[in-house]
Amino acid sequence: MAAKIRLMRLGKIRTPHFRIIVSNSRSARDSKAIEEIGRYTPNVEPSLIQINSDRAQYWLGVGAQPSEAVTALLKVTGDWQRFHGLPGSEGTLKVAPAKESKRIAYEAAVKAAANEPADGATTLKKKAQEKLAAKSAPATEQAPASVESADSAEVASEEVAAPVESAPEVSAEASTDAPSEASTDTPASE
Q1: Are the C-beta atoms of 19 and 8 separated by less than 8 Å?
Q2: 50 touches 38 (CB < 8 A)
């Protein structure tokens, strides 16, 4: 029986991961394997490559032929160089940095949340922000009016009173022009 070292594909359509297996060369890719000697996940950075070096050396020693993809993986881990006695048996495998413990990350998040003010913990919806801004805006407008001196308050009241006297004249003219404007608006709206 001729043995092959090859990849068995697992996973979803666009997220594959592979088992490195030893199987009969005449069997299908995903059929039953003689032995599983490793795993390969290409989608993470750096790629996850785990090969049982002792079992890989054994199967290479008894004549199992690796596929091209498995040969490339064996060269990365250094098992291919070790088997053939070539320099570089340490391989070029990149190892992912150790992840921070979930417990430590959780405790750090709790400390950060304790330092936040209670009022600003959530963001308001757009209408709620507008209402809050409207409530705070009149308070800021009233504050400068109380700071003004009595002279400037008198001048402001005189300016407001002057347009009121001329307002009836303008409104009388507007009332006479109103029917003509209404007659011109009617055809435009139709």
Answers
A1: yes
A2: yes
pLDDT value, residue 119: 62
Structure tokens at 118: 């209670």
Walking along the chain (190 residues) 10 residues at a time, the average pLDDT comes out as 90 93 88 91 90 93 93 92 85 81 90 72 74 74 50 52 50 50 50
Contact between 5 and 37 under an 8 Å Cβ cutoff? The reply is yes
Is the CB of residue 6 less than 8 Å from the CB of residue 65?
A: no
Distance CA 124, CA 132 (A): 9
**188 vs 101, 177, 182, 184, 185, CA distance in Å?**
72, 17, 10, 7, 5
On the CB side of 46, CA atoms within 13 Å amount to: 10
What are phi and psi for residue 40, nearest 5 degrees? -145, 125
- Identify whether 138 is preceded by a cis peptide bond (ω within 30 of 0): no
Whole-number pLDDT of residue 94: 83
CB count within 10 Å of CB 37 equals 24
